[in-house]
Write a structure and sequence with these properties.
Length: about 100
């Protein structure tokens, strides 16, 4: 989902900078995990780009969509692969295969 009227949001900036406690507060407050900047980049992509496994896991636990693509076609998985972040690439791949809870089917 595109943000439309603004280039960045708070979760995007905080995820980029790796402020774990603030990311946690924003997620608890209902911040949109898949909001994209005008260039299509999401908080998940920034966490991956900055090789931040903790924030990446927090966003995945909040159901961030790993298949969202930036305007250039890059996804979080592609970013992890291109930068050689094997652990994050495996984490993203694993999250893709998580079982959907029964109440969400």
């Amino acid at each position: 989902m595109k943000s439309g009227s603004c280039d960045i949001n708070l979760l995007y900036v905080i995820s980029q900078n790796g402020h774990i406690e603030i990311v946690q507060l924003l997620l608890k407050a209902g911040a949109g995990v898949d909001v994209q900047a005008l260039n299509g980049v999401t908080a998940l992509m920034l966490a991956v780009y900055n090789n931040n496994a903790v924030v990446t896991q927090m966003l995945l636990d909040a159901d961030a969509d790993i298949d969202v693509a930036a305007n250039n076609g890059a996804t979080a998985q592609l970013v992890a692969s291109k930068l050689g972040f094997e652990d994050l690439s495996a984490l993203l791949q694993e999250s893709k295969h998580r079982e959907v809870p029964i109440n969400q089917q």
